[in-house]
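ok so I'm stuck.
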Amino acid sequence: MATIEECRAALDQLSGNLARADADVRGATALDRSLSCHITDLDQTFTGRLDGGRIRVDAVAPGPPPAKAEIRLAMTGDDLLALVSGELKFAKAWASGRVRLEAGFRDLLKLKSLL
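replied:
not stuck anymore, here's the structure
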């Protein structure tokens, strides 16, 4: 089982990956939205912002998200690590229910290019 430190490092790596991505991906993530990522097996939630194509983590707290973020993710720590390393494809994980993504309709349309 992944640790909270490994999950934080994976989110930092994901942020760096998004910042270095090609124009299509950067365009899809060029939103300014609140973000939460609930690591279900650790019952910890990272909160922050998706801003300018980067993920900024502001806090981590026990339990589910304390407030409803504009973009909400939920998954196990192992799935987060597998997604970031490329071992698990987001579309497959989302379709199978291993990853939950909730956002407004317009944000989902923008983010669909990531799938």
